[in-house]
């Protein structure tokens, strides 16, 4: 039995569904089993070719909290926007149909939003690898201190770009003119960046609220990073986010964003260098040069040592050497070997790469790394 639903639920969770029939029931069960029952679940059947739409309809027939919208395929961003237009909740949330929310997720997020009067609240996430739940240290760190902040206090939080571990107060979403970019991958980053910068107060929940399923069937967007289309979208969304940060005009926030947040996923692209096409390589070089350029350089960011070296080699358009380091690092499955120099400093070592031809900063380890 469910209590009679108010015309304005506490939360509306938008669930885009496309070719996810195998995962959708578990996702919807995780939402309908929330300890906060005052919600609506808006499933957007994005022209799915499988049984996702029919499964959603079955859930709607059993539970009045579920609403289903059947639309022509428009992609993830468009499906989310369709769901938002139909959502009636005081707060907006999002859930990908192959993922799960923890049982108290909405209770915790709404509680933090209300007690801190924050129009945006974000919680911790773990990766779901089969049945294993894998912690992400960087997310643990960003969500370590529960309470409320402004982005200037913790600009690294801009790296938590996920749409689905957050709640947005609906009036804030509308007043800020937020929406998800359409027909592009990585649409989360521009919108979440804009939201952080506009929110003023941001609520932090340290508990895990979301289980992010890692799929190994090749269908995940994050498994397609060796394509030109993927890299093109990545550069586009990075530019959009950077434009918003620079318009915010806070030097400390911009510096952290450029050095800690913006380069954070470059390692997942660098692994593709040994097998990449000429077009993909040229696009990688042009994007790296545009976003970091010679005056900043990926060698001076907080990337791990091997990635800083590869990034510098990409900036110099040294494809063979970048492929050499990338392939060698992948074969090791761990840190690059190290050499202690006469002055006591330590640098990485890559056989067949002449260190005399490399900017020392691109190879030296920092004090905390040595």
The DSSP helix count reads 14
Instruction: Tell me the major beta sheet.
Output: 10 strands, mixed
Q: Give the overall pLDDT as a whole number.
A: 95
Fraction of residues in β-strands: 15-25%
The run of helices and strands is EHEHEHEEHEEHEEHHEHHHHHHHEE
Q: Which ranges are low-confidence, i.e. pLDDT below 50, for 5 or more consecutive residues?
A: 1-5
Helix content: 25-40%
Radius of gyration: 22 Å
Domains (count) = 3
Distance between the termini: 60 Å
Number of strands: 12
Going by helix content, strand content and strand pairing, the class is alpha/beta
| Large-scale geometry | globular
Describe this structure in words.
This protein has 370 residues and is of the alpha/beta class. The protein contains 14 helices and 12 strands. The chain has helices at 24-32, 52-62, 76-86, 105-116, 137-142, 170-175, 188-199, 228-248, 251-261, 267-270, 278-291, 293-296, 305-315, 319-332; strands spanning 11-17, 39-46, 66-71, 91-94, 100-101, 120-129, 132-135, 147-149, 166-169, 202-213, 338-340, 346-348. A hairpin with a 5-residue loop joins strand 11 and strand 12 (346-348). Helix 7 runs parallel beside helix 8 (228-248), helix 8 runs antiparallel to helix 9 (251-261) and helix 13 packs antiparallel against helix 14 (319-332). The longest helix has 21 residues, at 228-248. The protein is globular and about 70 Å long. It starts with 10 loop residues before the first strand and ends in a 22-residue tail after the last strand. InterPro entries: Glyco_trans_2-like, Nucleotide-diphossugar_trans. Residues 12-171 form the Glycosyltransferase 2-like domain. Keywords: Transferase.
């Amino acid at each position: 039995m469910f209590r009679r639903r108010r015309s304005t639920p506490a939360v509306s969770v938008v669930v885009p569904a496309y070719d996810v029939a195998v995962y959708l029931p578990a996702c919807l069960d995780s939402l309908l089993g929330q300890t906060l029952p005052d919600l609506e679940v808006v499933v957007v059947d994005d022209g799915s070719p499988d049984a996702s739409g029919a499964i959603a309809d079955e859930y709607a027939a059993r539970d009045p909290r579920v609403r289903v919208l059947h639309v022509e395929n428009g992609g993830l961003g468009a499906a989310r926007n369709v769901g938002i237009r139909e959502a009636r909740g005081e707060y907006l949330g999002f859930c990908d149909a192959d993922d799960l929310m923890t049982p108290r997720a909405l209770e915790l997020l709404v509680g933090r939003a209300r007690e801190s009067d924050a129009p945006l609240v974000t919680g911790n996430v773990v990766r779901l690898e089969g049945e294993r739940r894998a912690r992400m240290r960087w997310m643990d760190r960003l969500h370590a201190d529960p309470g409320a902040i402004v982005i200037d206090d913790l600009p690294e939080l801009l790296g938590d770009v996920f749409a689905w571990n957050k709640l947005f107060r609906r009036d804030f979403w509308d007043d800020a003119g937020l929406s998800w970019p359409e027909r592009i991958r990585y649409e989360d980053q521009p919108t979440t960046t804009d939201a952080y910068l506009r929110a003023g107060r941001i609520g932090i929940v340290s508990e895990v609220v979301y289980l992010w399923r890692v799929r190994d069937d090749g269908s995940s967007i994050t498994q397609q990073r060796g394509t030109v289309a993927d890299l093109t979208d990545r550069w586009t969304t990075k530019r959009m986010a950077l434009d918003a940060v620079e318009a915010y005009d806070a030097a400390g926030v911009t510096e952290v964003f450029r050095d800690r947040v913006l380069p954070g996923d470059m390692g997942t692209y660098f692994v593709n260098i040994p097998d990449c096409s000429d077009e993909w390589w040229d696009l990688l070089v042009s994007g790296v040069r545009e976003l970091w350029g010679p005056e900043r350089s990926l060698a001076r960011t907080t990337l791990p040592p091997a990635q800083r070296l590869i990034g510098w080699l990409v900036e110099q358009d040294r494809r063979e050497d970048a492929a050499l380091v990338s392939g060698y690092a992948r074969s090791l499955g761990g840190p690059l070997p190290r050499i202690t120099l006469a002055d006591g400093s330590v640098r990485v070592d890559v056989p067949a790469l002449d260190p005399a031809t490399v900017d020392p900063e691109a190879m030296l380890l920092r004090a905390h790394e040595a």
